[in-house]
Amino acid sequence: MKLLFIVNPISGDVDKEPFIKNAKELCLKYGIENRFFKTTGKDDEEKVNDIIQKFVPDRVASVGGDGTTLFSAIALMEEKIPMGIIPLGSANGMAVELGVNSNPIEALKDLIMSSMIKSLDMLKINDKYYSLHIGDVGINAEIVASYEKDSNRGMTTYAKYFLDELMKIDPFEIQVEANNENTIEKAVMVGICNSRKYGTGIPLNINGNPMDGKFEIVLVKNLNTQFLINAGLSKFNDVFYMKENITAISTEKAILKFDHPRLLQLDGEVIGKFDRLVVEIVKGATMLITSKDNQYID
């Protein structure tokens, strides 16, 4: 077996070197030929594609958080090389969704041993950007933008900016065209969801499934204290989820229109400001190495 590791050295402010050392020892023990590619933020797409063409791996391990998972999946779209996830980010939302072992070395062992390879959907936005997990416009996108500028990482930093933005909530008008219907509402956040929960464990889209060929547009109408309390409880039990505060639209394509350009984040990465988004499902875009621990596997 030839195994390529795509590593984000700074994701989650987690030191990846101990994992890399252990992973190399594991590969040596079992005779697995391996390469490690570390992202730098400069020409990463071109460099990793060059390695894929020259090394021709049988499998790829994405080592980092949701952004790293998305980067790896995009790099492998045309190649159809199966990939697995090693959760080493600040919020490993997609890894949790897909039942990936939270212990990085155990996740690597599962990746090596599993013969269960399934198709994973991806979202394409404005025919240019991609998302595997959850994107949004509104309060969370603003939080992510502030978080990216901070030298500190982790959930404590995220919580700080969450509280800051909570004091500035201002509902905006959103128009959604999907399934031959037109929905116009005011919301404080619009979720673009290929799965169910943020990395914090709080559900945004309780009916999501990243392997069903559909996605959901979720309109959050308000973020009052009671909603936040219930959302937190939903981390442990979905029965507390306040459906009356949510409008969810399941579809294969949607057009979103805003009152003026608003900030978009996708899988933890700030993309920019847009007044119109065209979102489409790319069915089976990624070949995922998984197991029966994945809640979406029958």
TrEMBL record:
<dbReference type="Pfam" id="PF19279">
    <property type="entry name" value="YegS_C"/>
</dbReference>
<dbReference type="GO" id="GO:0016301">
    <property type="term" value="F:kinase activity"/>
</dbReference>
<feature type="domain" description="DAGKc">
    <location>
        <begin position="1"/>
        <end position="129"/>
    </location>
</feature>
<keyword id="KW-0808">Transferase</keyword>
<protein>
    <submittedName>
        <fullName>Diacylglycerol kinase catalytic region</fullName>
    </submittedName>
</protein>
<dbReference type="InterPro" id="IPR045540">
    <property type="entry name" value="YegS/DAGK_C"/>
</dbReference>
<dbReference type="InterPro" id="IPR016064">
    <property type="entry name" value="NAD/diacylglycerol_kinase_sf"/>
</dbReference>
<keyword id="KW-0418">Kinase</keyword>
<dbReference type="InterPro" id="IPR050187">
    <property type="entry name" value="Lipid_Phosphate_FormReg"/>
</dbReference>
<keyword id="KW-0547">Nucleotide-binding</keyword>
<dbReference type="InterPro" id="IPR001206">
    <property type="entry name" value="Diacylglycerol_kinase_cat_dom"/>
</dbReference>
<dbReference type="Pfam" id="PF00781">
    <property type="entry name" value="DAGK_cat"/>
</dbReference>
<keyword id="KW-0067">ATP-binding</keyword>
<dbReference type="GO" id="GO:0005524">
    <property type="term" value="F:ATP binding"/>
</dbReference>
<dbReference type="InterPro" id="IPR017438">
    <property type="entry name" value="ATP-NAD_kinase_N"/>
</dbReference>
